[in-house]
Amino acid sequence: MTIARASAFALLAALGAIQFSIAAGQILLALAALGWLASFFSPAAAGERRFAAPAFFAPLVLYAVWTLVATVFSRDPGVSLEANKELLLLLVVPMIMTLLAGDRAPRALDVLITVGALVAIVGVYQYTLLNYDTLGQRPKGTLSHYMTYSGVLMLLVCATAARLLFQPGQRIWPALIMPALLVALATTLSRNAWVGALVGIAVLLMLRDFRLMALLPVAAAAIVLFAPSEIVTRVYSVFDLKDPTNRDRIAMARAGGAMIEDSPLTGIGPDMVAEVYPQYRTDDAVEATVPHLHNVPLHIAAERGIPAVLLWVWFVVVAGRDLLRLARRERTALAAAGLAVLVAMVTAGMFEYNFGDTEVLVPFLALITLPFAAIRHE
User: Fold this and answer.
1) Cα(208)–Cα(324) distance, rounded to whole angstroms?
2) Environment class of residue 347 by beta-carbon count within 10 Å: exposed (0-12), middle (13-18) or buried (19+)?
3) pTM of the model as a whole
4) Cβ atoms 139, 124 nearer than 8 A
5) 118-165, pLDDT tens digit by residue?
6) Please, what is the Cα angle at 123 between 343 and 106, to 5 degrees?
7) Rounded distance between C-alpha atoms, residue 290 and residue 269, angstroms
8) Does pLDDT of 43 surpass 70?
9) How far is CA 6 from its chain centroid?
10) Whole-number CA gyration radius for the chain
11) Is the pLDDT of residue 45 over 80?
């Protein structure tokens, strides 16, 4: 087995393992990264040395560089520097382009959704038999938090829907696992992931045939009529401005705006929101402190400055442009999944800081990179 093959196997294993254990996933990612780096210097891997990455990787690199600049000017550089290890996860993009090129890319999608089906079943079990059915105790599957769990399920629902719509010859397996994914996602009561998945699926329906959009109101009516009362109540709460979580998000937006006003160029520093939030908290806020601001662009701007959020927007625009072109040209499940996942992630990110969650970020980066890896010749 060559270094590249061993590294590809480790990377595939990491994409599955991170849905069960962040520690196991990170260990496997580290092994894959070591093999990937070694392949650039190995005589046996002479044909596999060439570095490759999609165009959207450039703004991600600049985003990482600006994060380091923001760290220098952080209110606590030591804390911010420790948090910057998350930037290493961005290497998943070129690793996938090199290690999972060609026919390996569809296998990676299979691994992601198959493991996701198992994780979904765990969540359904928790909801039905362990009474994880209230806002205070929600299903979290095999992960550490229900928000992380719902974010992963959102991505996998979009990827599985893409398989159903754009890979007609292989619909049996995705058709079998989709109900588990949808039920598990519903039971998390996570509105941001619901909205993200809905918008992602809408994109897929428009890509496939705009007339399929007629299915969405039918599905919405079915949810209202047949879903458990706690799920229906949670759906209605999306539009309730008196809902405590909605009011708290408005308060977080005000606090985040004040942070940006104080430090517009480099922000308060990575991983500093929880520490400084009490200083910016408004009187109408519900929580005394928060780990993040529940909005990706707002949180990035507050932590790392306005240049960082502009780089993030550049990344989203370039990725969206190239994935849309690829989806229209190739009409493959991988390309459609990549676009749907990007749209879902950005949509959910307006209500949750999912870009800073390792278990969500890794499959997200994988799913938007795999379409480009698939068309790359090994």
Assistant:
1) 12
2) buried
3) 0.94
4) yes
5) 999 999 999 999 989 888 899 999 998 999 999 999 999 999 999 999
6) 50
7) 15
8) no
9) 26
10) 21
11) no
